[in-house]
Amino acid sequence: MAAGEVRYCSRFPYLCLKFTLIVYSTIFWLIGALVLAIGIYAEVERQKYKTLHGAFLAPAIILILLGVLMFVVSFIGVLASLRDNLCLLKAFMYILGLCLLLELTGGIIALIFRNQTMEFLNKNIRKGIRNYYDDLDFKNIMDFVQKQFKCCGGAEYMDWEKNEYHSCSAPGPLACGVPYTCCITNKTAVMNTLCGYHAMKFQRQEAQRFIYVRGCTDAVIIWFLDNYTIMAGALLGILLPQFIGVLLSLLYITRVEDMISEWNNSTNVLLEDETTRPEIEFSSVGCCRCYPGQESSA
């Protein structure tokens, strides 16, 4: 560092960074606590009905894991920013950066191996279909997706053969049929819950006269591609807050390190009288006086 050069910001930018990081961490700490509470409540309700234990089929488990991660990481950020602890600040920054990197890597891998990704999704949806009437969480999600995206099953409507009630070898009125959420209905008509009766006995061209035959994985992906602005907004909503957290942490760590370095490099700073200690003046250039300035020669 050149003689007389000042590397750290004045007090106002330091306090701004500190306050911003505290607010950022606190907000996500509270959000994490809320997500965790919702997940725990949903899991308690799920256990009352003896539903499935698979993580993919249990949104409550996913909410709990997400809530714990957000709560712990954000708490580290709150504590680190309050105490100016460099170890915790770096841990907070590295964890956020690692999460961001894993998400980006996962997205890229999913795009590169999109065929395998689609098969993975369809395989897990078939598992859910097999236990459709036992897992109320999955049932509600599947019904919503089929109605909203006008689709049926995972890869196609024939996936419902995996369900013991809808299998063509099963007894009862649901045999060889599909749920009513797969049906093409008139909004003004009275809902017929057996509208998918014996749908799987028909060929695709015949079945599409009264049910949706395309799979929900294809339907959802096509919808996102058609609504790319919504998809971009969703991605930004997930990735941008994490990037902001990494950036805030990096800036704040830099400010704290510079202040510690300047303090340690000040000779006899604790022995000098307040009236004789040299005052440091910043040059007028730079936004918020955050750029290196020169000590006044006066």
Automatic annotation (TrEMBL):
The record's principal subcellular location, in a coarse class, is: membrane
What is the disulfide pattern of this chain?
A: 152-168
The record's GO molecular-function terms, alphabetically, read:
enzyme binding
Swiss-Prot/TrEMBL keywords: Cell membrane, Disulfide bond, Endosome, Glycoprotein, Membrane, Transmembrane, Transmembrane helix
Q: Which residues cross the membrane?
A: 21-42, 54-79, 91-113, 209-225, 231-253
Q: Where in the cell is it found?
A: Cell membrane; Late endosome membrane; Membrane
As given in the record, the signal peptide range reads none
Instruction: Indicate how the chain sits in the lipid bilayer.
Output: Multi-pass membrane protein
Annotated Gene Ontology cellular component terms: late endosome membrane; plasma membrane
Q: Which InterPro entries match?
A: Tetraspanin/Peripherin (IPR018499), Tetraspanin_animals (IPR000301), Tetraspanin_EC2_sf (IPR008952)
Biological process terms from the Gene Ontology for this record are: protein maturation
What does the subunit comment say? Interacts with ADAM10; the interaction influences ADAM10 substrate specificity, endocytosis and turnover.
Q: What does this protein do?
A: Part of TspanC8 subgroup, composed of 6 members that interact with the transmembrane metalloprotease ADAM10. This interaction is required for ADAM10 exit from the endoplasmic reticulum and for enzymatic maturation and trafficking to the cell surface as well as substrate specificity. Different TspanC8/ADAM10 complexes have distinct substrates. Promotes ADAM10-mediated cleavage of CDH2. Negatively regulates ligand-induced Notch activity probably by regulating ADAM10 activity.
Membership in a protein family: Belongs to the tetraspanin (TM4SF) family.
Q: What is this protein called?
A: Tetraspanin
Biological source species: Eleutherodactylus coqui
Origin organism lineage: Eukaryota, Metazoa, Chordata, Craniata, Vertebrata
